[in-house]
Amino acid sequence: MTDKKIDIDQMMIDEWRQLGFYYDFDERLSVNQWRFYGNKSGLRNFVTLLDDYTSRASNDKEFEHDHYGPYMYLKIITLDDQAIITESAIGGTITDLKRLRNIIADKINKTEPGQTFNIDKDYGDDNTVTAKFFVMADNFDPGSMDELIVSGRQEIVNKSFTK
Fold it and tell me: pTM of the prediction?
């Protein structure tokens, strides 16, 4: 067996690129929102995630859910009784999530690079947070937003993995 260094930073960057967009949750009380950054093509991947989620029959049961992204923080969850965006998940019935998909797709189509749009009461009346989408330039790289990687704080994890 040979020692092989695993480049965790590059692995995370590749996962962001595969996802097509970057997201985080800003929990400052004045903001309290999910933030999604991507070019139009990348943000359309979020629409595709919702398409895939809502088309799987197994997700039609309450509390079924999927996690997305390198850190798996973003959660889409099936709920029986409400469309809601919270700090822990974006949830609703399959019909609600399909409606969310259409809201996001429509707003992406109407928004130009450099502009933003929000999802709030147009999706759920009981949202505890909002979702803000930043439409970036076509050459946007989602991995460039990951503060752990860009700041070098992830480097300590990347020092001595062996395979």
Answer: 0.87
List strand residue ranges (DSSP E) for 10-100, in order. Answer: 22-26, 33-38, 65-68, 74-78, 84-85, 90-92
Question: Is 5 within a domain?
Answer: no
Does residue 35 lie in a domain region? yes
Question: What CA–CA distance (Å, rounded) separates 67 from 75?
Answer: 4
Vertex 92 angle, CA 47 and 108, to 5°? 25
Cα-trace Rg, the chain = 17
Query: Mind listing the pLDDT tens digit for each residue in 95-120?
Result: 999 999 999 999 999 999 999 999 99
Tally the domains of the chain. Answer: 1
Tally of residues, the chain: 163
